[in-house]
C-alpha cells in the first residue's frame, strides 16, 4: 500500500446512500477523499478502472443495484464494503467472503425507527387515520358531521400479531405491541430461546393464528415470495398485513388481488416489489396505506448512520475491528 | 311507580349516541321502549312534556348540547342518566346530584382505543405517514423517486413525553410509549402515588421539559384553555402536541398561530374547539393530522359501549348497583 498517510483515505461511494444527498456529504468530504461515480459522465465500470484501482474502501447504499463480481472485478484493492443499509440483499456477501473483503452494515441502529413505523402504519390502517385526515381536511366533516358517514374502525388492543422474522426489528415491534396488550407470536427459520412467544416454522400456520402479520425479515432465497396466496388466505378477510422489510417478500400480484377483492382487510406497505412503481389497483384503496420506503428517514437515524459509517471506515483504515461487522475480513 | 312489569322499561335517549345510528339501535329497541325525540317534529322540551313525564332513565350521547336544569325540569321522574361518553362536560352533574339522579358513564372502556389513537396520531405526525401516503398515491414517488424530494422525519424513541391528565387514558398512553423508550412525565391536579413518573403541577413547566405533549384530561373549569400561548411557547418549535381529550383544552386561536408560524413542529388533533368547524389556516399543513373526534369509533368499542349501557340500565331497573357509576343515586 503506497497510501500517503498525510492525505485523507480514499473511499468509493456506490449507490449513493441517501445520506450523501444531505448536509452530511460535506462532513464525509472533510474526512475522506470521496469518489463519486454518479457525478462522472463515465459508465461505472470505466469510472472504477480509471479512478478506483487503489481504492480500499467502498460505501454502498441500499439503492445500489447489485454489488457482485462484475463490479468487484474492477475494484482490485478493495478491503471493506460499508453498507448504509440493514438488508444486504444488494451485496454478494459470499463473493466478498471469497475475496477477503470485509462487510460492515447498519446492524441494529435503524431498528427502533423501523419498528415505530411498523406500529404507525398498523394503527393507521386499523384506525383509518389517513382516510380520516382527508375526510376532515376536505371539509366533509364540517359539511356532514360524522354521523352515519364514517365507517367504524378496528381496535388494536388484544389483537393476535404474527411477526415474520424476529430479529432486531421484529423484537422491537413485539416489545411495542405487547404494551398495546397484543398477543405476539412469530415465524422464523429457528426458534429463539430468548423469547417465550409462540413459534411457528411455517408462515401459513402463523397467518392462520394471527389477525395481523408484520413482515420484519431479511430478503433472501428463503423469504422471496414467502407470503403467498395460501398465506394471505390463511390470514383471512379480517386480516391486516404490514411490510417494513422488502417488497419481494410478498407475492405482490396476489396481494393486490386480495386487497381488490376484500379478501384481506388492509395493508400498510413501506416497501413494494419493483418500487417506486405502485400497482395502480391499490391507489384508490383507503385501507392501504403506503409510504416511500422511508422507514429510516429520520434526522436522528441519518445522524446515527453517518457516525456508524465513519466509525467503520476509521476502524478499517486504522486496522481496528469494524464497529458493526456483518462479515470479518 | 305504576310501571307495568310486563312491558319493557321506558328509556329516553338524548343526543343520541352514535351507537343509535348502527345495528345496535334494533337491539336497544328489543330490550327497552326507547323514546327518540330526534324522530319527532316536536321541539325537545315539548316532546319531554308530552311523552317523558314518567320516564325514569335517560341515555345521553356526547353530542347532546347540555343536560342541565332546563332539560331536567321536564323529566320529573328521572332516576338515572347513562352517558355513553367518558367526558361528562355536557352533563350538569352537580344538578343531577341535587335532584338525586344517578349518573353512569363509559368509565374506562374506551381508554385503550383512545390511547391507541393518541399513539397513532403521534407517530403519524412525527413520521409524516399521512403526507407520505399522499406522496406515494399521487404518483410523485414513482415520478421523482424519494431522493432529495422528501423531508426527513423525526424519531419517536427516547423522546420526552408530557401527559396532561394521568387518568385511565393517560396511563394507557404512558404504558404504550414506555415501550417506545420514551421518557414519561405528567401534569395533573394531584400527584399520583401509583406511578413514579415525574410530576408537574403546572402545564407550562411540563411543556418546558417535554418534546411532546399529549392531552388526556377531562374538560372542566380548571382545564378550559389550559394550553395557553405560554404553554405552547414552552413546548417550543421542535415540540408536537396531540389532543385526544376535548378541543377547548387548547386555546385554539393561539395553536393555529403557532402552527402557521412554525413555532411548534406539529399537531395531531382528534378534537377541535367548535368542531366540526376546522380552522381554514391548518387545512394545508402536512404537519397537522386531523381526525373527526372518532377516537372510540371501533367495532369493538361500540359493542362494549352497547353492553355497558344496557348493563347500567338493567341494573337501574332491577335496583342493583350501576356497573359504571360516576355519581350514585
TrEMBL record, chains A, B:
Residues covered by the D-isomer specific 2-hydroxyacid dehydrogenase catalytic domain: 57-324
GO terms assigned for molecular function: glyoxylate reductase (NADPH) activity; hydroxypyruvate reductase [NAD(P)H] activity; NAD binding
Domain named D-isomer specific 2-hydroxyacid dehydrogenase NAD-binding: residues: 119-295
Keywords, comma-separated and alphabetical: NAD, NADP, Oxidoreductase
CDD domains: HPPR
Tagged with keyword Transferase: no
The family this protein is said to belong to: Belongs to the D-isomer specific 2-hydroxyacid dehydrogenase family.
PANTHER family assigned to the protein according to its UniProt record, in alphabetical order: 2-HYDROXYACID DEHYDROGENASE-RELATED, GLYOXYLATE_HYDROXYPYRUVATE REDUCTASE HPR3-LIKE
Protein name: OLC1v1039013C1
Highest classification ranks of the organism: Eukaryota, Viridiplantae, Streptophyta, Embryophyta, Tracheophyta
Amino acid at each position: 500500500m503506497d497510501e500517503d498517510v498525510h492525505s485523507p483515505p480514499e473511499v468509493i461511494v456506490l449507490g449513493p446512500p441517501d445520506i450523501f444527498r444531505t448536509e452530511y456529504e460535506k462532513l464525509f468530504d472533510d474526512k475522506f477523499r470521496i469518489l463519486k461515480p454518479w457525478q462522472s459522465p463515465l459508465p461505472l465500470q470505466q469510472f472504477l478502472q480509471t479512478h478506483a484501482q487503489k481504492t480500499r474502501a467502498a460505501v454502498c447504499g441500499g439503492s445500489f443495484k447489485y454489488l457482485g463480481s462484475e463490479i468487484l472485478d474492477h475494484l482490485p484493492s478493495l478491503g471493506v464494503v460499508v453498507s448504509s443499509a440493514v438488508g444486504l440483499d444488494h451485496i454478494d456477501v459470499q463473493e466478498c467472503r471469497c475475496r477477503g473483503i470485509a462487510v460492515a452494515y447498519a446492524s441494529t441502529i435503524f431498528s427502533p425507527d423501523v419498528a415505530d413505523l411498523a406500529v404507525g402504519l398498523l394503527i393507521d390502517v386499523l384506525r383509518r387515520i389517513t382516510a380520516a385526515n382527508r375526510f376532515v381536511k376536505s371539509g366533509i366533516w364540517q359539511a356532514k358531521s360524522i354521523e352515519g358517514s364514517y365507517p367504524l374502525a378496528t381496535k388494536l388492543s388484544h389483537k393476535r400479531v404474527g411477526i415474520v422474522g424476529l430479529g432486531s426489528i421484529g423484537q422491537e415491534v413485539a416489545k411495542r405491541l405487547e404494551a398495546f396488550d397484543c398477543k405476539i407470536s412469530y415465524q422464523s427459520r429457528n426458534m429463539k430461546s430468548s423469547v417465550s412467544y409462540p413459534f411457528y416454522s411455517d408462515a401459513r400456520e402463523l397467518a392462520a393464528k394471527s389477525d395481523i402479520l408484520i413482515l420484519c425479515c431479511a430478503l433472501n432465497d428463503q423469504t422471496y415470495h414467502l407470503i403467498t396466496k395460501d398465506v394471505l388466505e390463511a390470514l383471512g378477510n379480517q386480516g391486516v398485513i404490514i411490510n417494513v422489510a422488502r417488497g419481494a417478500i410478498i407475492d405482490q400480484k396476489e396481494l393486490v388481488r386480495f386487497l381488490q377483492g376484500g379478501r384481506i382487510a388492509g395493508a400498510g406497505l413501506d416497501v413494494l416489489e419493483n418500487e417506486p412503481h405502485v400497482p395502480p389497483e391499490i391507489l384508490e384503496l383507503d385501507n392501504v396505506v403506503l409510504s416511500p420506503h422511508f422507514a429510516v428517514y429520520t434526522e436522528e437515524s441519518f445522524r446515527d448512520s453517518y457516525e456508524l459509517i465513519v466509525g467503520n471506515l476509521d476502524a478499517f483504515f486504522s486496522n481496528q475491528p469494524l464497529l458493526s461487522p456483518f462479515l470479518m475480513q
